[in-house]
Specification:
Protein name: Protein YTP1
Distance between the termini: 61 Å
Pfam families: DUF2427 (PF10348), Ytp1 (PF10355)
Keywords: Membrane, Signal, Transmembrane, Transmembrane helix
InterPro entries: DUF2427, YTP1_C
Largest sheet: 2 strands, antiparallel
Helix content: 55-70%
Number of strands: 2
Bound molecules: protoporphyrin IX containing FE
Order of helices and strands: HHHHHHHHHHHHHEEH
Strand content: under 5%
Number of domains: 2
Structural class: mainly alpha
């Protein structure tokens, strides 16, 4: 480790740690201006804090996720992107500490979790710099083998943790979710977040994972049902303290857990046909539908709350119903529309997007949020439209990230469907310089398959990727085991 870069890295690491430590102690959140029984003072958020919010949302919500995809695909833009993100994050950190204006209770969850996230980021940068050193021989080679998975796991956890930190920021800024509200907030944010996460996973599978699911030799409903069953099991035993009296919504939450594991088991069973081949089924879609109906049935006092809950329920029910239609009628029980797994029908986006929308609506429907809207001049319809807009933004960004991954990870498969009906291969797959092997195929061997009309531009190349063209047994039930 006599390397100057390594020594420099270590030195800056310690400098940063000590600076951060000092900063964390350096200022004191006096609760003096916070009225008795309140969680925030009456002043508005000051400009410094607003800039903090925007900069950190941009760094952690936009730059780092893009950088993560660039890291996974080993792009040479990974390091510059993450360096930019880290610089912005550092600025955001200072601004977060430097704000005046509204005051917040000390040791709020946002400032506590910020320390963890900040330390992880510093660790991530240090590990990254070490990897960047490319010391691959001797002891360093062994250390590198340990460090790589760490950098990889923390890197992929970052977007999730940042998501949590942004939510913590929102509730801290408004003084929400404290004291007796903690439980309800947790329920709404975890459940809502889970719907969005399911939407993100379905987006990834639809865009780049169809072949991957086929290769697992199981139908997608097997995995979905297994998760549903496991989650149901947990809820059956945790939503009510068994042996004590049944209070409030215990019955609803517990019976919801019960139907989840019952249905989940049925879904796992139905995910094979009589010959043991993978088979699609309606169960996960149906569970979503019933959940939407049940969750929106809690009686609400406020008008806007009733409206938000009912729209949430309808959205989730529509997600479940459209998922069933997609599987049974659009895909006709196949895993993919095409054997190449590179295509989709526009209908397939509907259940996926509705999951994002349902997630945002549910996350935005806690008592305190509903009170805030009711007291403002905004009406329920506008609030719901805002939630749908947020859902569209996150949906768009997820699509963009998956597309970026696809272009960088599978550059040689790039094809383009020109709207004049002729499918033509385009050689400009990925931006120059980003291809792992700079070799561009002329793509002569491509053949188009236009019968299906729109969305059927599956140009399958005779490229050296036989696996992509391997016909799957999915949906051809009798071919499997005879
Ligand atoms: C600014 C400092 C950083 C540097 C110098 C750096 C450097 C690197 C290097 C050299 C690799 C390639 C490792 C290899 O393949 O052997 C890599 C991979 C990766 N980095 Fe970073 N990185 C930095 C920050 C980050 C941050 C902040 C994140 C997350 C938000 C991140 C996420 C990743 C991921 C997900 C991979 C892919 C690992 C894998 O699965 O193979 N990096 N990084
Ligand atoms: C993931 C991105 C973010 C990170 C890493 C982050 C980090 C931080 C840090 C380090 C502080 C100083 C904490 C302290 O005073 O001890 C802070 C303060 C604060 N941040 Fe963030 N922040 C992020 C996003 C947000 C967002 C999106 C919001 C609001 C919507 C927000 C609202 C606040 C508020 C209200 C404070 C003042 C808390 C206090 O004075 O106790 N932050 N943030």
């Amino acid at each position: 480790m006599g390397d100057p870069l390594a020594r420099g890295t270590l030195l800056s690491f310690f400098l940063l740690i000590t600076t951060l430590g000092k900063m964390a102690d350096g200022h004191d959140h006096g609760d003096s201006h916070i009225p008795e029984g309140q969680t925030v003072s009456l002043e508005p958020l000051d400009t410094t804090l607003w800039i903090h919010i925007f900069i950190n949302m941009f760094a952690y919500g936009v730059i780092f996720p893009i950088g993560m995809v660039l890291g996974i695909t080993k792009s040479r833009w990974h390091v510059p992107t993450q360096v930019l993100g880290s610089a912005l994050a550092l600025l955001g950190f200072f601004l977060g500490h430097a704000h005046g204006g509204r005051e917040f209770v000390s040791h709020n969850i946002h400032s506590v979790f910020a320390n963890i996230l900040q330390l992880l980021l510093i660790g991530q940068v240090v590990l990254g710099l070490y990897l960047k050193g490319h010391w691959e021989k001797g002891v360093n080679g062994k250390i590198r083998k340990l460090i790589r998975p760490c950098h990889s796991i923390i890197g992929k956890a970052m977007p999730l943790l940042s998501w949590a930190q942004m939510i913590f920021g929102g509730i801290t800024a408004l003084g929400f979710c404290q004291g007796e509200h903690v439980g309800q907030c947790a329920a709404h944010f975890i459940m809502g977040g889970a719907f969005i996460a399911y939407g993100v996973i379905l987006t990834i599978i639809l865009l780049v994972g169809q072949i991957w699911i086929q290769r697992t030799g199981r139908s997608q409903e097997f995995f979905d049902s297994a998760v549903i069953a496991a989650w149901g099991c947990v809820n059956t035993f945790t939503e009510h303290r068994w042996g004590t009296a049944w209070v409030k919504n215990d019955w609803q939450h517990t019976t919801m857990g019960i139907i989840w594991w019952c249905a989940g088991l049925a879904g796992m069973w139905l995910s094979r046909d009589r010959d043991g081949n993978p088979k699609r089924n309606f169960i996960p879609g149906f569970v979503i539908l019933v959940t939407g109906w049940a969750m929106s049935a809690h009686p609400q006092e406020l008008m806007v709350s009733a409206m938000t809950h009912s729209t949430f329920g309808k959205t989730l029910m529509a997600a479940g119903l459209s998922r069933i239609i997609e599987i049974a009628f659009v895909l006709k029980d196949k895993q993919s529309l095409s054997e190449s797994g590179r295509s989709w029908n526009s209908f397939q986006y509907i259940p996926v997007f509705l999951l994002y929308a349902a997630g945002f609506l549910f996350m935005g429907a806690t008592e305190e949020q509903m009170n805030l809207v009711a007291q403002s001049s905004m009406d329920g319809v506008s609030y719901i439209l805002i939630m749908y807009s947020l859902a569209f933004l996150v949906f768009l960004f997820t699509n963009m990230l998956v597309h970026l991954y696809d272009r960088l990870a599978n550059p040689d498969l790039n094809t383009k469907d020109l709207s004049n009906g002729h499918s033509r291969a385009s050689g400009h797959a990925a931006e120059e310089g980003q291809l792992r092997d700079a070799e561009q195929f002329e793509l002569d061997g491509l053949m188009s398959d236009d019968e299906g009309g729109e969305g059927q531009a599956m140009l399958r190349g005779s490229l050296d990727r036989p696996s992509i063209d391997t016909p799957s047994t999915l949906g051809k039930n009798n071919h499997g085991r005879v």
